[in-house]
Structure formats: structure tokens, C-alpha cells
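hey
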């Protein structure tokens, strides 16, 4: 698969936090972000070339890798390449892929060490221990290591350290300027439709979640560790002065457990805008239990908020109870109405396939979707049993996942039937769901003008195969607002008048589809 541009909105902030912790402890940090380079024919070729080049140039004393469970093949390839070039350099693995299934993944990937959970302090301790020539690995909490050929794990301890105590994440080792520049053209559309030249920046305002939804991988630790508003504003000031972003993505799956925190955040942002001239739009995610009201959302909009999302998942009370969502469809309906009243964007997902799912429960969700969600930024898909979730354990217990090794081999390539429906009926249900949602009638508008951007950079013009930046002008089909935007599109699709993409209106914030066709045949770069 040819690698695509991957902007900072998808950058794993944990790496930046770890880089900052290591630098604070006096260590030199080199980063490698191959996602921004599309000069290669395949992701495998890209990884090999860039990783070998980096290993030769930096000759590091330790290498850190990490990601989610879906990154297992990428991480396995990286370890193999590192071993072939620098076989004696210790490799440390972390992130969700370790935290959510540590023993299996550690034994399968066989890095030298792994860290479960927050890695800032543990990794600094490990680096210093290796520098001293010590091997008292059992004294470092949450560490996996090898002893006489056997995997061992030190005592698992909760990290109660305030998140405010960590240094601000350091993005400099990871080609941040490229991520904020050319590669912002293909961020998720909800993140960029308010700005024609988006410069998105990310921020983590809290860690953990007090809820225990069955499909979520954050089930081991129910603590919600949030940063103080003052600490968050200090980081925003540093980031804004350094990178001049115009979109801020709060990455937390649970930004606020109550509307008071949103009020405090919005009030502080208004003060920052007045004092420092901040000019950016922002979005957040939260839970329906936050009980956001109109006054609070209006305040957030005044402070620049353009979009918020809830975890919808289902409109069936039966399925919501099975998922342990602790929400009701009425709360989602109220949020949709609130977003329309205040005129901010609202988003979420329906995920079908919980063990309690039936044709009847699916129909409840589809009717809700058709009645309330056509113009909102709401997507439809199937639930997946990822490691760390209760659903994953359920699938192992029920034999739905019969072989964990095969599961990882085909992760994200197989759809698992966790319902009581026979397989044939399950396939029919999912087919009908996708057909239903694709035919619901999301508005389509044609461009009034479309041309290749004459101001595009050389890398934008030639760095992504047959795609290049296009300048597009069209009107919102909901409120008729005129919109100018730049999009990275496949040239031939635009020229043949069958290019299309989903976007939103920066005024009414409703969703629609744009059909892009060249105003006249331009000269290709």
C-alpha cells in the first residue's frame, strides 16, 4: 500500500511527551516520522530506507517503538530492520499495543524491553539504569524484560503522578513543520473545514476515563487524570507562538466529565485571545453525562469552538446497556438539537455488532440516524473487538476468536460476528446497514470553480503521486454560504468530473458532499 500523507492530527502525542521527558533528563533525542515521505512505492520500502538511513546517521544508544494493536506488522518489520543493521541496540516498545496485551505482544515481537502504561518516568529510569550498567529491572515499575530467555514483568503499579508535572510534549524531533504544512491537506475533514489553509495542532488535556464501555480498550484504569486549565493554557501559548496553528484538536476521548470544565476552558481561551491575539478554531470530544447546556456551548463557540462529538454507538437502549455506555438516545437527540441551535458541528459514530445486536436493535439505530443525523458529522461502521476491551475477552471466551496469533495476523481485516445471529444473517444485516446509510440522501453540491492551486509548494505538487492541491469554490446546500477551500485530490478524477469528498460548512456546520470538477482543463504540474 502506498503511504499517504499523515498530518499532525494523527500524530501519536505519547512520543512527543517521551521525547520531552528524556530531554529534560539530559538526553539527546532523535525522531523518525516516515509518514511524511511519499517518494517510495510502498510503505515497506519507505520504512526500510528511512529507518536504515536514520540508524546510520544517528547511531542511537536506545530505540523506542510503539503504537496501537493495529500497528503490529509495522512494528514487527521495524524491529527486524533494526536487528539487521544495529543488532546490539536495545529496543523498547510501548503504547496501547503493549498496555492492552503486554505478555502476548512482548513475546511475539521480542523487543528487549516493554513499558506498560505511561512511559515518561519509567523510560528515563531504564535509560539511566543501562547507562550505569545495572540490570535491576524489577525495580522499575510496569517494565517487561528478558531474564535467561524468559519474559518477566516487574510489579504493576498505578501512576498517580499529576499530568501537570510532565514537561510539555516536544514535537521538534518528528518533522513537525511538514506535518503542520503540506500534510494538513488530508486531515480528517471534521478537523479542517473551517479553514481554507488549515494548520492543525493537537493537545492532550487529560488521561484516562471513568467509564467502562465494553468496546473500549481503556478498561484497566478508571482514573480520570486531568490537567489544570492554567497548565493547558501555558502549553497552548508555547505551541501558538512556535507554530502559529489555526485549528486545535483536543485529542482526549473525554475532554470534560462535566460542563464546568468546558466553561473554565472557554473562559481561559477568551482571555488568551484578548491578551495574546490567539486566532484558532478548536474541537473536543466528551460523554453525554457532561450535561452540556446551551449557555456553556455558546460560551465555547465564542471562544472558537466549532465542533464537538459524543460517543453515540447505538440508539437502541438494549445495545447501549450491553455496551455499558450509561447513556440514552434522548441525550444524543438533545445534543444534536443543541448543536443546531448554537450552530456548531456535532459528530459521532454508530457501531453495529454488539453481542446484543439484532435486526430490531439495528433498525432502531437506523431510524434514529435517518431522522436526526443526516446533516451531522455522524459515521456508521461495525464494532471491533480490540485487545484491552471487554469484547476482546468475550470473543476469546466464546471461541469467536479461536487463535490469537491469527487474530493479530489479520487485525482489522476480519469482521467478527459477536451477535447471536447466524453468520449469513449477520452478513446480510451489515450489508443492509451500509446500503441504507449510503442511500439516505446526504446533500450533494457541485463546485462553481475548481483549479489546481498555483501557489502549491513543490512537495505538494509532486509528492503524492497523481494527487495535487486544488482550489475549490462552492456553496453550502444548507445555508448557501460561499466556501473557498483547498483539497488534495486525484487529478484525473477531477478532470473526469467524478471526484467527490465529504465536508462541512464553516457557518452552519452541517455535513454535505462536494462533487469536484475542473472549471476548465488546467495544465497538470
Amino acid at each position: 500500500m502506498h503511504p499517504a500523507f499523515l498530518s499532525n492530527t494523527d500524530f501519536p502525542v505519547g512520543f512527543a511527551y517521551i521525547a520531552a521527558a528524556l530531554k529534560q533528563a539530559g538526553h539527546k533525542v532523535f525522531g523518525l516520522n516516515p509518514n511524511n515521505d511519499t517518494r517510495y512505492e510502498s510503505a515497506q520500502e519507505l520504512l526500510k530506507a528511512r529507518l536504515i538511513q536514520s540508524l546510520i546517521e544517528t547511531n542511537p544508544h536506545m530505540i523506542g517503538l510503539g503504537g496501537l494493536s493495529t500497528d503490529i506488522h509495522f512494528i514487527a518489520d521495524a524491529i527486524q530492520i533494526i536487528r539487521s543493521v544495529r543488532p546490539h541496540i536495545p529496543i523498547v516498545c510501548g503504547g496501547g499495543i503493549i498496555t492492552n496485551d503486554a505478555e502476548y505482544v512482548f513475546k511475539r515481537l521480542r523487543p528487549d524491553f516493554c513499558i506498560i502504561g505511561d512511559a515518561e518516568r519509567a523510560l528515563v529510569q531504564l535509560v539511566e539504569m543501562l547507562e550505569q550498567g545495572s540490570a535491576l529491572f524489577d525495580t522499575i515499575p510496569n517494565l517487561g524484560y528478558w531474564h535467561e530467555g524468559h519474559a518477566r514483568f516487574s510489579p504493576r503499579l498505578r501512576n498517580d503522578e499529576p499530568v501537570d508535572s510532565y514537561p510539555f510534549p516536544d514535537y521538534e524531533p518528528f518533522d513537525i513543520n511538514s506535518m503542520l504544512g503540506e500534510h494538513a491537506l488530508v486531515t480528517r475533514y471534521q478537523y479542517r473545514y473551517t479553514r481554507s489553509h488549515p494548520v492543525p495542532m493537537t493537545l492532550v488535556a487529560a488521561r484516562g476515563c471513568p467509564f467502562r464501555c465494553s468496546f473500549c480498550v481503556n478498561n484497566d484504569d478508571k482514573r480520570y487524570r486531568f490537567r489544570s486549565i492554567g497548565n493547558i493554557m501555558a502549553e497552548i501559548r508555547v505551541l501558538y507562538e512556535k507554530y502559529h496553528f489555526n485549528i486545535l484538536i483536543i485529542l482526549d476521548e473525554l475532554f470534560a466529565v462535566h460542563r464546568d470544565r468546558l466553561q473554565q476552558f472557554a473562559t481561559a481561551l477568551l482571555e488568551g485571545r484578548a491578551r495574546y491575539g490567539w486566532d484558532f478554531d478548536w474541537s473536543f470530544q466528551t460523554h453525554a453525562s457532561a450535561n452540556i447546556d446551551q449557555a456553556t456551548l455558546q460560551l465555547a463557540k465564542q471562544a472558537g469552538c466549532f465542533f464537538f462529538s459524543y460517543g453515540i454507538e447505538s440508539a437502541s437502549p438494549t445495545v447501549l446497556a450491553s455496551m455499558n455506555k450509561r447513556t440514552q438516545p434522548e441525550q444524543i437527540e438533545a445534543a444534536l438539537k443543541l448543536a443546531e441551535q448554537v450552530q456548531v458541528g456535532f459528530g459521532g459514530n454508530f457501531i453495529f455488532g454488539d453481542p446484543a445486536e439484532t435486526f430490531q436493535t439495528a433498525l432502531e439505530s437506523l431510524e434514529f440516524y435517518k431522522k436526526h443525523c443526516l446533516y451531522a458529522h455522524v459515521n456508521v461502521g461495525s464494532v471491533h473487538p480490540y485487545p484491552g476491551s471487554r469484547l476482546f475477552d468475550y470473543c476469546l471466551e466464546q471461541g469467536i476468536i479461536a487463535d490469537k496469533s491469527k487474530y493479530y495476523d489479520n487485525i482489522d481485516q476480519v469482521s467478527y460476528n459477536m451477535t447471536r445471529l447466524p453468520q449469513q444473517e449477520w452478513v446480510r444485516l451489515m450489508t443492509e446497514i451500509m446500503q441504507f446509510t449510503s442511500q439516505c440522501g446526504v446533500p450533494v453540491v457541485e463546485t462553481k470553480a475548481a483549479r489546481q492551486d498555483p501557489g502549491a509548494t513543490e512537495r505538494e505538487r509532486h509528492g503524492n503521486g497523481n494527487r495535487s492541491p486544488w482550489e475549490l469554490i462552492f456553496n453550502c446546500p444548507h445555508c448557501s454560504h460561499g466556501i473557498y477551500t483547498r483539497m488534495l485530490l486525484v487529478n484525473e478524477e477531477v478532470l473526469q468530473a467524478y471526484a467527490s469528498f465529504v465536508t462541512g460548512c464553516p457557518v452552519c456546520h452541517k455535513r454535505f458532499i462536494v462533487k469536484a470538477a475542473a472549471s476548465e482543463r488546467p495544465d497538470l504540474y
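The longest helix spans residues 259-276. The first strand starts at residue 63 and ends at 66.
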